């Protein structure tokens, strides 16, 4: 069945997905994603584990389920490869997924969702839906095993990134989002409490109190994601306000010119 008979090619969502499929046709160093041959609203992706983390060297495969209202509504993301950070075969909770439609922006894309997923992998799960808290050693072992993992639909996932091109230049919104996520992840790592000295009860009590206070002040993953979205929203709103201002100015100028021309025609 052809695309013309299966989908409404006049639909904004279908047009958007077809354009994104064309833009993302070639794999990059970090990810590869494409729609299924028989379903434009389900995509399979492979991402490379972020470097200098316990996921380095791993390949992680998953599904992106897009609603008919895309891009006005966010996609759902499901990991299929065991990874120790997210549960497999379960929709995961991120600020760019279907769990948070209130924070989704239509200007974001499938590429934005993949970049956010990669950036969030080293962050703390903090009990969010679909998150896991494996040890670094367990995640490293899963990263090694992932190299031979195969998808029943796509085959061996590591092969999709072998002849990859360089990652395209990030947009301003993507760069801002990834920088914020990176800063939050580094804060998580720096706030780990040092172990108390054995045999010293007073120091142990101090350490426990200090650790408890730090844990209370550590932002949850949901808070981290909300902060990321807030930063991007603020930038988008400021840009939108500037655009509206100049549109009004241009409209006024055009109207004045039209009046002058009309006056010249009528009174000459």
Automatic annotation (TrEMBL):
Region (Disordered): 181-224
Transmembrane segments: 245-266
One of the Pfam families matching this protein, by short name: UQ_con
Segments of skewed composition (Basic and acidic residues): 184-195, 203-215
Keywords: Membrane, Transmembrane, Transmembrane helix
Entry keyword Chloroplast: no
Family matches, as InterPro entries: Ub_conjugating_enzyme, UBC, UBQ-conjugating_enzyme/RWD
The UBC core domain, residue ranges: 12-162
Entry keyword Transmembrane: yes
Source taxon at top rank: Eukaryota
PANTHER family linked to this entry: UBIQUITIN-CONJUGATING ENZYME E2
Annotated protein name in UniProt: UBC core domain-containing protein
């Amino acid at each position: 069945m052809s695309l013309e008979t299966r989908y409404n090619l006049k639909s904004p969502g279908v047009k958007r997905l077809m354009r994104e499929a064309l833009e993302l046709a070639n794999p990059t160093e970090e990810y590869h994603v494409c729609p299924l041959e028989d379903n434009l609203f389900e995509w399979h992706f492979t991402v490379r584990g972020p470097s200098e983390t316990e996921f380095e060297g791993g390949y992680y495969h998953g599904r992106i389920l897009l609603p008919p209202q895309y891009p006005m509504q966010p996609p759902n993301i499901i990991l299929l490869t065991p990874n120790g950070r997210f549960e497999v075969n379960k929709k995961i909770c991120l600020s760019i997924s279907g769990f948070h439609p209130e924070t989704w922006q239509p200007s974001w894309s499938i590429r934005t969702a993949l970049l956010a997923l990669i950036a969030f992998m080293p962050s703390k799960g903090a009990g969010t839906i679909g998150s896991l808290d494996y040890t670094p050693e367990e995640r490293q072992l899963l990263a090694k095993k992932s190299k031979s993992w195969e998808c029943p639909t796509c085959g061996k996932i590591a092969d999709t990134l072998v002849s990859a091109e360089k990652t395209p230049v990030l947009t301003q919104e993507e760069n801002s989002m990834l920088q914020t996520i990176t800063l939050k992840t580094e804060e998580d790592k720096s706030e780990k409490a040092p172990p108390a000295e054995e045999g010293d009860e007073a120091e142990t009590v101090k350490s426990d109190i200090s650790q408890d206070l730090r844990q209370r002040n550590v932002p949850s993953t949901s808070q981290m994601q909300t902060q990321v979205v807030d930063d991007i929203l603020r930038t988008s709103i400021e840009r939108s306000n500037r655009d509206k201002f100049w549109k009004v100015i241009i409209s006024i100028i055009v109207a004045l010119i039209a009046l002058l021309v009309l006056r010249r025609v009528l009174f000459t």
